[in-house]
From TrEMBL:
Annotated Gene Ontology cellular component terms: chromosome; integrator complex
Protein name: INTS8 TPR repeats domain-containing protein
SUPFAM superfamilies for the chain: TPR-like
Source species of the chain: Aphis glycines
Listed GO biological process terms: snRNA 3'-end processing
Keyword terms, alphabetized: Chromosome, Nucleus
Pfam families: TPR_INTS8
PANTHER family named in the record: INTEGRATOR COMPLEX SUBUNIT 8
InterPro entries: INTS8, TPR-like_helical_dom_sf, TPR_INTS8
């Protein structure tokens, strides 16, 4: 049950909760309540309730409409009953709450509906009018002498016009969703339009208020307002307000006025007033009335400024330079290396953008400018790095120094600029940076940088360190060097350990996939490792080589050919696991080419086995990239491979032979497969025979006994392993025995042909329907009549069948996402499992395909009545009764009893009357009109009368017009359902 804490009589409520009318009885409680840490109800809830209640209609007076709120001609009508003491008290309590917020317009605009904000600001104007009729805001500009107004009047007028401008900004930018309270609806768009029409008057009024010459102003506080009671009339003690300086009052007006000008893109004028506001705030001691954030003010000033000087922030200078041909960018980066104000990501972006523009010819600069930027960025990056982890300069940076004639000079020049900083941590980081640069540079370049005894280098390194740097070898490895511990003693020696070099070579072989590079690495390894016990597969224990190939290759003597072929085959298997079939085929072709160096029988056998591995890879690629794969001669090669299966010489692996059969099955070569007999591949051959038979007899003959007898025992738990017998007497072939579930799933998930997929799914559906034995829960699928009955005494778990069916169906939809039968079956499966929202999604996806995304009527043969009936039941289960009522109309024979029952449900969770425009059946519309008239639902009744009065629904129209009107509404309704269930 929903509990409204602002309404009396609702339970349960906390003992310390106050009800809103208690403050009406005793107004002195309000301030005490608001000062609590977490008042319940909150200040915003109370304000909304007070304002709403102050607009309630007495029984003898007409209702206030929101359209009257901004219409000054109707002001007298709307305030004539609001002068009673109850309503005056409510208004004063509302004033107390906003004054408790210290007149913060941001809080008012974000927590209160705009319609109630209008009521509040008009109540304030009325409260201070004193005969001037200030509530008529259109006459404010006609007041000739503003200096004659009292402080409270000036404050109220200024607040109203500041509110007008800020509410336009906030509601336009935030696109706040409107909400309603009782009869007052938050029509934001209409209100904003009226406010924008009078915004020019508000601008003029604020400018006039800025010209007032007063030393101070009095701002109302919570003690200013005294609600009336039985003995005392309404009274306001304006002298109890907060006194603020003229500068503070004027700066608040300037700030709001300038923000509106900024919002209107009048940046020059906005900048003038932002600057004036900033000058006023420099010597200002703000009070609680001051709501200007200095950070925002500085940001606005910077955004409006069109001039960048040396006194501007370095970040502003940087951004201005990047937009104006990069003038002075090097000076800015040099300064930033000392003060570190510009974020590093902006400097990196500058480097990339400038390199791109220079390469495309969009920017012209000196050839050394980009290297200067590279160097300055590298120094800045190194300067902020911790002492333990040094960010090494990128290889291309050292390359740029090497290939630029002035590279060493630029490097030393930019380094010299940062040496002025005496911070020890900074200098330590720079020392590590320079050391890393020198370690990566060629020896001759190091000499160029260190020659002539540059002062900045001597500040970082001593003579001994420089001598060691000059005597370092060319190819010194820098792996695993802890530079933080070696800065003071650069004693780096070359690694000559043979075992370490072999380890590095093996690591490179593990990550290298280019055949020519692999050959070079293996040559080096073969020269270093002459151990006859060494096995190339020991490099990576994850490498796999098929057993027939491995047995042939291992028998060869250790050498480059053996190593290279084994690694190429192993790496091709790695690529297959990653679905990178093109690279896998390339590696196998290279391995096959290697075997052509010798025409002996051994090499010929290896070459044939590698060729079959290549065929296997191509078949897997066909299976993975179905419909996007160019078959070419794949079918003929599969047939040629199968010719070797029963030969007495070299035979392909069982996985390759099975994949050949599956590939031929998926391309429709059923007749070829049925003329062959392979003992070990009964399941795919039986599926091929069934596909051929179904295609011949169109599914009218029960001819699928072979597949049925193979699959049924897989799910029978009572058919234990102890009593399983071979199916054809051949004990050598494992598949001649009862299939394991993993073998069956491997075949099922490899199917791509639509006929084969439907045969398998219909078999599983047949078993599912038999086990469930509920006519209302049957899955609908073609070819169900070709299967025999399940014999008695079999123990088949329903859950197991459902899981397998779901897995096979999901995999099939990956490759046939627009198959109507599969989509409807997926919906049926979700329906019987009780997943009603998901069932709606799949049914609607099938309808989307049939109707070409609702561009044409849904054809009956494609979407049968049972689909609409199940969709209707799904909606009823989810309590979307209006949707269910309309879906009853889609059936050939309309189920009016169910439609009327659903239409009369009062706890429907869908959009109710939003769907009434989609109804084309006059009988259902008439029932709904009767029902809503009975319940006195006038708004629903009026909408239905408008719908039933549409010309295209006239009973005298011809059948073609009626049919067209029904089709249009059907498609609109189905589109609305798809937006909810398919594309939420």
């Amino acid at each position: 049950m929903d509990v409204d804490l602002l309404r009396p009589g609702m339970i349960p409520i906390a003992p310390n909760t106050k009800l809103w009318f208690e403050f009406l009885i005793e107004p002195s409680l309000l301030e005490e309540h608001l000062n609590k840490d977490h008042p319940d109800p909150s200040a915003a809830e109370l304000l909304i309730k007070f304002l709403y209640s102050s607009m309630e209609r007495p029984k003898d007076l007409p209702l206030i409409d929101i359209d009257d709120l901004m219409d000054n001609s109707r002001i007298d009508k709307k305030i004539e009953y609001r002068k009673r003491k109850k309503y005056e008290c409510l208004k004063m309590l509302a004033m107390k709450i906003v004054s408790f917020w210290e007149w913060d317009l941001n809080i008012l605009e974000t927590r209160v509906p705009i319609s109630l904000q209008i009521i509040f600001v008009q109540d304030l104007l009325e409260l201070v009018s004193c005969g001037l009729n200030l509530i008529d805001f259109e006459t404010h500009n006609s007041i000739e002498n503003l200096s004659a107004l009292k402080d409270e009047q000036v404050f109220a007028v200024a607040l109203f016009h500041r509110w007008t401008l800020t509410v336009i900004i906030n509601y336009t930018l935030s696109k706040k969703s409107s909400f309603s309270l009782g009869p007052i609806q938050d029509g934001n768009e209409d209100v904003l339009l009226k406010l924008e029409m009078q915004s020019e008057h508000s601008e003029q009024m604020l400018l006039r208020l800025l010209d007032l010459k007063r030393s101070s102003y009095t701002i109302p506080t919570i003690n200013t307002f005294d609600p009336p009671d039985e003995l005392r009339p309404l009274n306001c003690y304006w002298f109890k307000g907060l006194t603020v300086s003229s500068a503070e009052f004027r700066s608040q007006i300037m700030y709001d006025y300038a923000k509106y000008k900024f919002f209107k893109a009048q940046y020059e004028e906005a900048g003038i007033y932002f600057k004036m506001c900033k000058e006023l705030n420099m010597n200002l001691t703000p009070s609680s009335f001051h709501k200007i954030k200095l950070e925002e003010l500085n940001g606005f000033c910077a955004a409006c400024s069109s001039k960048i000087t040396e006194n501007s922030s370095l970040l502003m200078q940087f951004l201005y330079s990047t937009q104006t041909n990069h003038n002075g960018i090097l000076r800015i980066l040099e300064i930033d290396n000392q003060i570190m104000e510009i974020p590093m990501f902006l400097r990196d972006s500058l480097e990339l953008d400038l390199a791109s523009m220079l390469s495309l010819g969009k920017f012209t600069a000196s050839r050394d400018m980009l290297l200067h930027i590279h160097t300055l960025n590298a120094i800045r990056r190194a300067s902020v790095t911790s002492g333990e982890i040094v960010l090494l300069p990128p290889e291309d940076y050292v390359t740029k120094i090497k290939f630029n004639l002035r590279g060493p000079e630029i490097f030393l020049k930019d380094l010299k600029l940062c040496m002025k900083i005496k911070d020890k941590k900074f200098r330590k980081n720079i020392k590590m940076f320079v050391c890393n640069v020198l370690l990566k540079c060629p020896k001759n370049l190091v000499k160029d940088i260190l020659k002539d005894g540059h002062e900045e280098i001597h500040e970082l390194f001593g003579d001994e360190d420089i001598h060691q740097l000059l005597t370092l070898p060319e190819d010194i490895p820098t792996v695993n060097i802890d530079m933080s511990k070696r800065l003071n003693r650069l004693k780096i020696t070359q690694i000559n350990n043979v075992n370490v070099q072999k380890l590095l070579l093996k690591n490179k072989i593990s990550i290298e996939y280019d055949p020519s590079n692999l050959r070079n690495l293996l040559q080096q390894l073969h020269k270093m490792d002459m151990d006859p016990v060494f096995s190339i597969l020991d490099i990576n224990y994850e490498w796999q080589v098929p057993l027939p190939l491995q047995s042939l290759l291992i028998g060869l003597p250790n050498g480059l050919f053996k190593y290279l072929v084994i690694i190429l085959i192993a790496k091709s298997k790695e690529m297959i696991k990653l679905n990178d079939f093109e690279r896998a085929k390339l590696l196998l072709r290279e391995a096959e080419t290697e075997t052509k160096i010798n025409n002996s029988i051994m090499y010929s056998k290896i070459r044939q086995l590698i060729s079959w591995e290549g065929l296997y890879t191509e078949m897997l690629q066909f299976q993975h990239e179905f419909k996007n794969f160019a078959i070419g001669d794949l079918v003929e090669r599969c047939k040629q491979c199968l010719e070797f299966v029963q030969s007495d010489n070299l035979i392909p692996r069982q996985e390759i032979a099975e994949q050949c059969i599956l590939t031929l099955l998926n391309v429709g070569e059923w007749e070829y497969l049925t003329k062959r007999h392979y003992n070990c591949f009964k399941l795919p051959l039986a599926i091929a025979y069934t596909c051929l038979d179904v295609n011949k007899f169109k599914g009218t003959k029960k001819s699928a006994k072979e597949v049925w007898d193979l699959i049924l025992p897989v799910f029978d738990y009572g058919y234990s392993a102890t009593n399983k017998r071979p199916l054809d007497g051949d004990p050598q072939c494992t598949q001649n025995r009862v299939l394991s579930q993993s073998d069956m799933m491997r075949v099922f998930l490899s199917l791509r042909d639509q006929n084969a997929i439907q045969i398998v799914l219909s078999l599983l559906v047949k078993i599912q329907n038999f086990l469930r034995d509920e006519s209302a829960m049957e899955l609908i699928m073609p070819f169900l009549n070709i299967w025999p009955v399940i014999p008695n005494g079999m123990n088949i778990p329903l859950r197991n069948i459902t899981e397998v069916l779901g897995i096979v169906l999901t995999e099939s939809l990956k490759y046939h996402p627009n198959h109507i039968i599969l989509l409807k079956l997926k919906g049926d499966l979700q329906y019987v499992m009780g997943h009603y929202s998901s069932a709606m999604k799949w049914y609607l996806e099938a309808i989307v395909i049939v109707s070409d995304y609702f561009a044409r009527p849904v054809l009956k043969p494609m979407i049968e009545d049972y689909v609409y009936k199940r969709m209707m039941k799904c909606c009823m289960q989810m309590q979307n009764f209006t949707q269910a009522a309309i879906l009853c109309l889609f059936q050939e024979e309309i189920d009016y009893a169910t439609a009327y029952k659903c239409a009369s449900e009062t706890n429907s969770c869908d959009a109710l009357d939003e769907y009434y425009d989609y109804i084309w059946d006059i009988n259902l519309l008439e029932f709904l009109i009767y029902w809503h008239t009975k319940l006195n639902h006038q708004e629903h009744r009026q909408k239905l009368l408008k719908t039933i009065g549409a010309l295209e629904l006239n009973a005298n129209n011809n059948e073609e017009i009626k049919r067209e009107a029904a089709n249009i509404r059907k498609l609109k309704f189905l589109r609305a359902l798809s937006q909810q269930y398919v594309h939420p």
